[in-house]
Amino acid sequence: MKHNLKVAPLALALALALAASSLSAQAVKVDAGIPGYSKTSGVSGNVSSIGSDTLNNLMTLWAEGFRRQYPNIRVQIEGKGSSTAPPAMIQGTAQFGPMSRPMKADEIDGFEKKYGYKPTAIRVAVDGLAVYVNKDNPLQQLTVQEVDAIFSKGRACGGKPIANWGQAGLQDGAWAGKPLSLYGRNSASGTYGFFKENALCKGDYKDTVKEQPGSASVVQGVTEDKFAIGYSGIGYRTSGVKPLKLAAKKGGQYYGTDPADVYSGNYPLARYLYVYVNKAPNKPLDPLVREFLKFALSKEGQEIVVKDGYLPIPAKVFQEELAKIQ
Fold first, then answer.
1. Are strands 245-247 and 141-143 parallel, antiparallel or unpaired?
2. Per-residue pLDDT tens digits for 261-294
3. Rg of the chain's alpha carbons, rounded to an integer?
4. pTM, entire model
5. DSSP per residue over 262-311, as a string?
6. How far apart are CA 151 and CA 258, in angstroms?
């Protein structure tokens, strides 16, 4: 099974199934098989990261931790959306391309046309892309088909249109007739693309979705708007919102964003988060780029993943990703 360019949800489930039994919703710990980071010599200079907003906080926290190891390095970070990563890597303006979705075929082709080989994808964390409602919303769960009916124009997943909270399952008088207030990301976002493909069956978003420039602003919108619903990574969860349980199909079991459900792949919107790099075949990475990735994958780096609200990679994935950058 190849993981370096695209990982299907089923492959995610297979790769992470072993980790499911060792984690609970209450305590997320880094796999004991992931070693600590060992500082090395000859690491200096400046690097740039351009890409995912979902990974923006993680990249910043990793950079801070990495600089404690190497005070003379600088890491410049810009997180305006995953689709900004491939052009920056093709143009050579960024050494790191964080993305919350796999690169598309045309993005890989553009890179390969420039360099003669494909970019290398490093899986650095696991996310359960959450569908959030306001903390005061009594709704607990939706099917993916219902999510599609809420957010999409054409309902490519099937089902009847859902325009108000009564149609979404809230028959209480205070909610039933209230229209849904939709929050989402803009088209530069990998989260926008992942949600479109996996929750909307590749359908188009409704024009009424309030497109936000970042994940935090989606969560903020849902926090401030009682009748709102939006989607964002679990790392951006706050006390003002509630993630809904999701079922892959009508009549199916509902799963939440707790670690066991995400790691097993039962949660329908489980995904890897990636950092892409430019690694020529049979040539070593620049020491600064290599060591930053080794730090991110290490015990210390994965503890930062937990701190930021995402899920750490299992040791098996750590070994596979480390082999790509050696």
1. parallel
2. 999 999 999 999 999 999 999 999 999 999 999 9
3. 20
4. 0.90
5. HHHT-STTEEEEEEEE---TTSPPPHHHHHHHHHHHSHHHHHHHHHTTSB
6. 24
